[in-house]
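Input record (Table S2, row 183):
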Amino acid sequence: MRDGYPEVAFAGRSNVGKSSLLNRLLGRGALARVGATPGRTQSVNYFRVNRRFYFVDLPGYGYARAGRQARQAWAGLIDAYLRHAAPRLAVVLLVDGKVGATAADVEAHGYLSGLGLRLVVAATKMDQLTRGRWQPGLARIRQVLDAATDTPIIPFSAQTGEGARELWREIEAHVTAGASGKD
Ligand code: GDP
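Output record (guanosine-5'-diphosphate complex):
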C-alpha cells in the first residue's frame, strides 16, 4: 500500500495490550498511546521502521460493549486495506493470554486466515499467568481459534519483555522473505 515496502499489521480487541506491545517492540515510550479507552483509536496508523518496512496499527475491535454492528464497522474499515496489502503483509493478532480467545478474537482470526497472508498470534500479558499455566493456556488459544499448525502462537509480556525476541524473529523472517505473502 505504501511504497511497496513490507508491512506488519497489529490487530486485537481494545485493551488487549497492543500499544504496550508496540512500545516494547520499538523501545519507545511515545510511539503508540497506551491507555484503556475502548475503541479510541479508529484509524489505520503507519510507523516506518528501520527504513525497511512499516508497522501498521489497526483499530481495536470487539470491546466489551461493542455488538455485531461495531465489529462489522471494524471489518469494513480495514477490509479494503488488508486485501490490498495482503501480498506483502503479515498480521500479528493479539489475544489476551489470561482471558484467552474471545468470540471476537475467533471471528477476527477466521476472517484474517481467509485472506492468505502470514498470520502470527501473540498471547499478551503472560506475566499475569504462572509459568505452569502457559502451555495449557496457549494450547487452549490454539484450539479455540482453530489456528493452523504453521501459525505461531507467541507468549508475550510487555511488562517483562518476554517473547519480544521471538516476535521480532517472526517479523524479520517476513520482511526478509521480501514479503511475498505466505512465505
Ligand atoms: P490497547 O488498548 O490494546 O492498546 O492496550 P494497552 O497497551 O493500552 O494496555 C491495556 C491495559 O493492559 C493497560 O492497563 C496496560 O497497562 C495493560 N497491559 C498491557 N500489556 C501488559 C502486560 O504485558 N502485562 C500486564 N500485566 N499488563 C499489561
